[in-house]
Amino acid sequence: MRATHISGIKNTRADALSRLERAGDYEVRAEELLEILKIAQRTPTLDAFAASHNHKLERWCGINSPIAEDGLMVPWKGEVVLAHPPVPLIVSTIQKAKREKAQVILLLPNWRDLNWDTLLKSIPHRSWDRKLQKEG
Questions:
Q1: pTM, whole model, 2 decimals?
Q2: Cα 56 to Cα 9: distance, rounded to the nearest angstrom
Q3: Which whole-number Å values give the CA distances from 37 to 34, 73, 102, 114, 132, in the listed order?
């Protein structure tokens, strides 16, 4: 294995992802979430990736959560999971949903050329393209 530096000019995708990772918390606007839940015709029971200041449900996972700090460590069987994972956890979230055959309302950036799009194609899903996030 050999490590090589790729300048930011030539490595725009990774550079943008690393900046997004450090950009702070993002959350879905309440009115947009209500619209998605209406379209999905599902009522989520667990907010898998949240914080005390932005959780959307009474049952949530994150730091200071009464359930768990890590939503990926909680069984999703029997839940309707609301998942708006941080970018580095998107692939793990999709893999968990597939492995547990869980019902998940998964909120993702619309970056079709990245690796999670292939994973999504391997599981039954419906998708809606909307601008949903606000910086928190």
A1: 0.72
A2: 38
A3: 5, 24, 16, 25, 13
